[in-house]
From TrEMBL:
GO molecular function, one term: magnesium ion binding
Signal peptide: none
Protein name listed in UniProt: Pyruvate dehydrogenase E1 component alpha subunit
A Pfam family annotated for this UniProt entry: E1_dh
A single BP term in Gene Ontology: pyruvate decarboxylation to acetyl-CoA
Gene3D superfamilies xrefs: 3.40.50.970
Domain of life: Bacteria
Keyword annotations: Oxidoreductase, Pyruvate, Thiamine pyrophosphate
């Protein structure tokens, strides 16, 4: 690997570690009951996010989904202000009003939405603004595979293609939309659907940060040169499932933990009146089938994007970078926990 290549990989790995520890800090805040609502983490998406965002500069904008914290971290948004926002502090990034799903930073030109598919139209707006400014800026939209079944995303792809907007559409494909396999509800298939608007589509292994960074560099260069939008289709399994405490993941990985919760449901199977037994059994079979699919498609430890990147670096270097990132996140977390205690 050239020395520039090594430096780039080191920078990307540091960013991925920052993202991972921040997501773990969010998990800790949520488990302690300090962050309300569901918690959607981006663990597993580190390589996609670091690889894409590493190609952006101050001219560029990002439209994010509800797994937005990784991209905010990679963009350089202050870690403490992100964590404070998630615990609802008035000193948080959005004054404590956004929660983890609706984060934004005007200064960094980033905005997230809990509405599936919304990053598409938002990125078109950002892209149009960038083109109007004429400084070569691009916009990036991050969304999941389930979002391709939202009309507004299809319209955004069409508009970007028709107007040759400088937008990079990044589909993070984990193959699931909450509890449904995307392949079961995406007519025509993901790749053909995303590639149907006449713009280039680059398929990448979303666990390999260098492949993502190279593909994103090509897509961003096209946008900057006024050659229009690109789609990046990045596969990236997520070990935590849809949200923290995902029952399907727990069903397959922590059976003992769930036994107490499942027992009353089993008892309900024979309670009358209610649906016919055959119908009830068929529902149970459906849940079992989904759990089996989750087990079959569970990401292997070897597919962890951080491990993959670390293996490409000298061991001492990767360890050192991981420590740097951990310290940064621990400092931010310490401040947030301190504030939470003094507010309580
Ligand atoms: C317009 C809209 N419809 C439905 C939902 C409920 N919902 C939240 S996440 C989700 C699945 C999205 O799956 P995918 O796009 O693959 O993203 P992932 O959560 O896997 O990252 C759905 C249907 C929503 N938030 N917005």
């Amino acid at each position: 690997m050239s020395s520039t290549g090594t430096e780039q990989l080191q920078a990307l790995y540091l960013q991925m570690c920052r993202i991972r520890w921040t997501e773990q800090a969010l998990a800790l805040l949520w488990r302690r009951g300090l962050a309300s609502g569901e918690m959607h983490l981006g663990i597993g998406e580190e390589a996609v996010v670091a690889g894409v965002v590493g190609n952006l500069d101050d001219r560029d904008a990002m439209a994010l989904d509800y797994r937005s914290t990784p991209a905010l971290v990679a963009r350089g948004v202050d870690l403490t202000s992100i964590l404070l926002e998630v615990v609802g502090s008035p000193s948080g990034l959005c004054g404590g009003r956004g929660g983890h799903m609706h984060l934004m930073s005007r200064e960094h030109l980033v905005a997230a939405s809990g509405v599936v598919g919304a990053p598409g139209p938002l990125a078109c707006g950002f892209g149009l603004a960038a083109r109007t400014k004429g400084k070569g800026g691009v916009a990036v939209a991050f969304f999941g595979d389930g979002a391709v079944n939202e009309g507004m995303l299809m319209e955004a792809l069409n508009l970007a293609a028709a107007w040759r907007l400088p937008v990079v559409f990044v589909c993070k494909d984990n193959r699931w939309a909450v509890t449904t396999r995307s392949s079961e509800l995406t007519g025509g298939g993901l790749r053909r659907r995303l590639g149907a608007f006449g713009m280039p589509l680059d398929r990448v292994d979303g666990r390999d940060v260098e492949s993502v960074a190279a593909a994103a560099a090509r897509a961003v260069a096209r946008g900057r040169a006024g050659r229009g939008p690109t789609v990046l289709l990045a596969s990236c399994p997520r070990p935590e499932g849809h949200f923290l405490g995902d029952p399907l993941v727990r069903l397959t990985s922590a059976v003992g933990e769930l036994a107490a919760e499942v027992r009353p449901l089993v008892a309900e199977l024979v309670v009358r009146p209610g649906a016919p037994l055959a119908q009830r059994l068929s529902a149970v079979k459906g849940i079992g089938g989904k759990a089996a699919a989750v087990a079959v498609h569970a990401p292997a430890r070897t597919s962890d994007p951080l491990r993959r990147a670390a293996r490409r670096l000298p061991e001492a270097t990767s360890r050192e970078l991981a420590v740097v990132a951990r310290r940064e996140v621990e400092t931010a977390l310490g401040r947030v926990l301190g504030e939470a205690v003094s507010r309580a």
